[in-house]
Amino acid sequence: MKGTRLLLLVVVAALVAAYFAFDLGQYLSLDYFKSQQAAIESYRASHPWETALVFFLVYVAVTGLSLPGAALMTLVGGAIFGLLPGTLIISFASTIGATLAFIVARFLLRDGVQRRFGDRLGAINAGVAKDGPFYLFTLRLVPVFPFFVVNLVMALTPLRTSTFYWVSQLGMLPATLVYVNAGREIGRIDSLSGILSPGLLLSFVLLGIFPLIARKAVAFVKARRVYARWSRPARFDRNLVVIGAGSAGLVSAYIAATVKAKVTLVEKSRMGGDCLNTGCVPSKALIRTTRFLSDVSRARSLGIRAASADLDFAEVMERVQRVVRTVAPHDSIERYRALGVDVVIGAARITSPWTVEIATEEGTRTLSTRAIVIATGGRPAVPGVPGIEEVGYVTSDTVWELRTLPRRLLVIGGGPIGCELAQCFARLGAQVTQVQRGPQLLPKEDPEIAALVMQRFRAEGIDLRTEHTPLHFERDGDARTVVCEHAGGQVRIGFDQLLVAAGRTANVSGFGLEALGIGVRKDGTVDTNEFLETIYPNIYAAGDVTGPFQFTHTASHQAWYASVNALFGRFRRFKVDYSVIPWCTFTDPEVARVGLNERDAKARGVAYEVTTYGIDDLDRAIADEAAHGVVKVLTVPGKDRILGATIVGEHAGELITELILAMRHGLGLDKVLGTIHVYPTFSEASKYAAGSWKRAHAPQRLLEWAGRYHAWRRG
Ligand SMILES: Cc1cc2nc3c(=O)[nH]c(=O)nc-3n(C[C@H](O)[C@H](O)[C@H](O)COP(=O)(O)OP(=O)(O)OC[C@H]3O[C@@H](n4cnc5c(N)ncnc54)[C@H](O)[C@@H]3O)c2cc1C
Predict the structure, then answer these.
(1) Which of 137, 258, 450, 692 could cross-link to 171 by cystine, CB 3.0-4.6 Å?
(2) Element (H or E) spanning 433, and its range?
(3) Does the bond joining 637 to the residue before it have cis omega, within 30 degrees of 0?
(4) 115 vs 25, residue with greater confidence
(5) Closest CA to 96 of 135, 151, 133
(6) Contact 414, 434 (CB under 8 A)
């Protein structure tokens, strides 16, 4: 394969070199054509087919090799053959030439380009996969995009060759007609600037705006199709109705009220959604208490002979609720009403693209609205393992109601929620067994990163069972057992309390989506496009209900796009930007991430370099008895541009912010290194990682010369 590629490269390079070496370009000039016009026309009169064939082949060669001259040849073709025959010959010659260039470029370049720039081509690839023919069509129609550039760029995408051919032929036809028509008049033109007559200019302008018109027309036709069976109210009660008052819904309503839209926020349960009531806030409050317990248990390492903690589990859980109550005013009905949001407690159901029915304690009412944001969030997924209902279980929704510490807790699931809760309960004194189907905890992280967490979990006494798949649960009186498949055999594990943390399911049913025909993806989330728009251009979704991330900060990020697009989409819509998404798992050690890790980079075919810095070497970490963990940064090979970073260790969730900022604003590791960090702090870890990168890329030659210079200076 490599040999064939090399041979093809040599042939193409030789042909291009010959073109320039023999100055063949002189024959593709207006001057040359005009000097030969009479001779060419007389030859064509006696040999029409031969002339057409030679012209056709030369055109294919010029376009296939991406040589300059195709535009001029189109004009010349019009002059020689006239409008219809000229258009016919050039339409086929240009499409065949373009397709040859496309095939050659794909064969020679695509793998390398995808490997090197795969992360940045991701969006284009996805766009081409979804809307490729239309995308190419628009590029072909607009003559400002150079013909050969379109061929080469499209070759780097996954577009099929046959699609490329027919779309090119159709898309180039109008421009070909305009050029050939201009060429027909070529006898009267002395220079290329002569073709800029008002008539031709008008046709170019039309060609330029045609794709926009086409896109608008397609959107209009699509919208008419989905709205056809619904009757649209003449007037609207609201500009926006937001369903769900979790992170996504609250921010959507807040933005709408800020820009003076009339907005209703409907919540059927508790304001603040999962994050406040059963997610981020209670889990972080519990983690704080258990971190203290961990400090107590390692008092000796801090020079204290003995320390003990006298804890009452029920009091710990009550404190968690106190924290929730303290944060609750941030998300309260009163606060949002004061901001100008009409908050309604009730269950919302979408009854048409413009109406939402709300069942409240007082009765049911219906609001008509210009736009809707669906922010109904998600809930814990409970696997249908036989016997699970009989043994009973808690989830991240209900674990907060426990007031008695289970003696033996079985945690099913090794994702962030399962890990955070497993460690908390172990530190509170429960005997925790954590069962994970795959080979590692935190399956989205690189293996050696997860290994640091697993090592700590085991050291703290958590019985980790990786590659265990629950087959069924058994209950005999108070005795509960899970039977797992492991290494081809069966393993029995006894427990008193089961905590299911096996992923989350989007809330997509029971509020009208089915009747509206709004689809869900394979993973169960609401199907939206890059504008977070459903099949109805006035209905949007944000947060866990649409994914792909399930974090509070991504829910609020999406909420901006959903609400702004819902309210102002007729003027301008914004594509949601997922280029720099961070997150953190708040285990001890914390695991914080932004952008790519090695696993993702490999999966996407992105070339990368890895730089690591061990936090065991950091002065502040040593002073704090927290000398463990790592900063791992992926950069573009040979460059300091950050592709992604993972930090494991104390305060990792705080430390990652510097690298998020760097990535977001295109600052490389050089800039991180060139920033003064306070000594001694944990934040120096990123700077030292940048220093490791710099050392690995030191200009060795230059340093050798510097060494010689200093030796010479010493005499
Ligand atoms: C244990 C745990 C810990 C977590 N820790 C973190 C963390 O540390 N950091 C982080 O970023 N994320 C964390 N998350 C994730 C975070 O909580 C979610 O990503 C976030 O809450 C999603 O917000 P949302 O608005 O999409 O949905 P939700 O918060 O689920 O809100 C949806 C709301 O819609 C309401 N609703 C649903 N249907 C209707 C209807 N028909 N009518 C009216 N109302 C309706 C629901 O009652 C709910 O209040 C954690 C989650 C859990 C479970």
Answers:
(1) 137
(2) strand 431-435
(3) no
(4) 25
(5) 151
(6) yes
Q: What confidence tier does 6 reach under pLDDT thresholds 50, 70, 90?
A: confident
Cα–Cα nearest to 444, from 533, 365, 551: 551
Looking from the CA of residue 274, the nearest atom of ligand 1 is 29
DSSP-derived secondary structure for 162-208: HHHHHHHHHHHHHHHHHHHHHHHTGGG-SSGGGG--HHHHHHHHHHH
d(CA 176, CA 78): 9
Interacting residues of 24 by C-beta distance below 8 A, sequence separation 6+: 18
Atom of ligand 1 nearest to the CA of 358: 42
Average confidence score pLDDT of the chain: 92
Q: What is the mean pLDDT of residues 278-283?
A: 98
pLDDT in tens, 539-555: 999 999 999 999 999 99
Quick check: 90 and 172 in contact, CB under 8 A?
A: no
What is the best residue among 344, 551, 581, 594 to mutate for testing ligand 1's pocket, by most ligand atoms within 8 Å of CB?
A: 551
**Tokens, residue 507:** 């809330």
Q: Is 636 within 8 Å of 643 (Cβ atoms)? A: yes
The minimum-distance atom of ligand 1 relative to the CA of 284 is 8
pLDDT of residue 571: 92
> Residue 144 pLDDT > 70, yes or no?
no
Q: What is the pLDDT of residues 607-644, one digit of tens each?
A: 999 999 999 999 999 999 999 999 999 999 999 999 99
List residues near ligand 1 (CB under 6 A): 243-249, 266-269, 273-275, 278-280, 283, 347-348, 375-378, 396, 417, 507, 511, 543-545, 550-553, 555, 586
- For the beta sheet containing 590-595, the strands, ordered from the edge strand earlier in sequence to the opposite edge, are 582-585, 590-595, 642-649, 630-635, 609-614
Gap from CA of 172 to ligand 1 centroid (Å):
49
Q: What pLDDT is recorded for position 67?
A: 87
Average pLDDT in the 98-111 region? 88
* Cα 101 to ligand 1 centroid, rounded to whole Å: 50
Distance between Cα 325 and ligand 1 center (Å): 17
Which candidate, 67, 47, 45, 46, places its Cα nearest to that of 58? 67
Answer yes or no: are the C-beta atoms of 628 and 688 closer than 8 Å: no
Strand ranges, E, within 565-668:
582-585, 590-595, 609-614, 630-635, 642-649
Which residues make beta-bridge pairs with 432?
409
Given this model, what pLDDT does residue 183 score? 78
How far is residue 248's CA from residue 377's CA, in Å, rounded to a whole number?
8
Select from 254, 270, 280 the residue to mutate for testing ligand 1; criterion: most ligand atoms less than 8 Å from CB.
Answer: 280
Residues 6+ apart with CB under 8 A from 118: 604, 605, 606, 607
Take atom 26 of ligand 1 and give the residue whose Cα is closest: 543
Phi, psi (degrees; rounded to nearest 5) at 602: -65, -45
